[in-house]
Amino acid sequence: MQFFDSHCHFDFIEFNADRVALWQACKAKGITRLLIPGVAPGQWQRAAQLCAGYDGFCYAAGIHPHWIEQQPWFQKDPADLLSEPTRDHIAALIQQEVVQPACVAVGECGLDKMIATSLDVQQQLLAVHIELANQVHKPLIIHCVRAHNELLASLKKNKANHGGVIHAFSGSYEMAQQYVELGFYLGVGGTVTYERAQKTRAALAKIPLEHLVLETDAPDMPLQGKQGQRNSPEYIPQIAQVLAGLRGLDTAEIAAATWANAMALFHCN
Ligand SMILES: [Zn+2]
């Protein structure tokens, strides 16, 4: 079995102490591919460096909603919505990065209602990412917390021509179906391991397998039973096993399908 962790913050300091040994352990368990999402301009280079040093790594370039307020343009004028020069500046930064061969997607970007940053600013920044992804013909990695209706509205207004992943999908079957119709894959992660996540589990049991990819979001989003601990890409097979159980399939079938989906989406070979 081979596994692709389509969303792992392997560059974060939580992995500084044991990064090399951890990737060895992952490979021994069949996890041979990993995508590092972008969170902010200064971090993309670190992701790129890791990709150069590890087999099977790729990354994305984008601005995560949680990092918006740390950006210099936001600090200058937090009350203002993104001006045209600011939007152009951000787009140019991402555009310079996505020419790197290991940079396979734009993101992670998106909408998060659990943070103080205004939704207006988040939506404008999301639109910048969608436009740029269309320009450079790349998929998007999208973060969405309690803002599915707003995100769906944004994606209907600004069509993402190369689709992408709704990372750490949590929501109903109807919601999932709408993303699939818009050309998106759903990222299946730790949430699916929690029995109380009934709506999400039911959705992911029913959505056709060709629209799902696996992810950990490590070091965040620990699996059931591992709350409070660092999450790790080595738990991908456990997520696959839970998804297999929900769908009445073998873990090997989940591994094969989600592997093929991620490889196709990110044009890996
Ligand atoms: Zn993430």
Can you walk me through this structure?
The chain has 269 residues and is of the alpha/beta class. It has a single domain, classed as TIM Barrel (Alpha-Beta Barrel), CATH 3.20.20.140. The protein has ten helices and eight strands. An eight-stranded parallel beta sheet has the order 1-2-3-4-5-6-7-8. The longest helix has 18 residues. The model has no long low-confidence stretch (mean pLDDT 96). The structure holds zinc ion.
Structural class: alpha/beta
- How big a fraction of the residues is strand? 15-25%
CATH architecture: Alpha-Beta Barrel
Bound molecules: zinc ion
User: Which stretches of 5+ consecutive residues score pLDDT under 50?
Assistant: none
- Kindly provide the name of the CATH class: Alpha Beta
Q: Any idea how many domains?
A: 1
Work out the helix count: 10
**Based on DSSP secondary structure assignment, what is the total number of beta strands?**
8
Order of helices and strands: EHEHEHHEHEHEHEHEHH
Percentage of residues assigned to helices: 40-55%
Strand numbers in spatial order across the main sheet: 1-2-3-4-5-6-7-8
Q: For the residues shown, what is the average pLDDT?
A: 96
The main β sheet shows up as: 8 strands, parallel
- Name the CATH homologous superfamily: Metal-dependent hydrolases
Tertiary shape: globular
Q: Multimeric state of these chains? A: single chain
Rounded to the nearest angstrom, the distance between the terminal CA atoms is 17 Å
Evaluate the radius of gyration.
17 Å
At the third CATH level, what is the topology name?
A: TIM Barrel
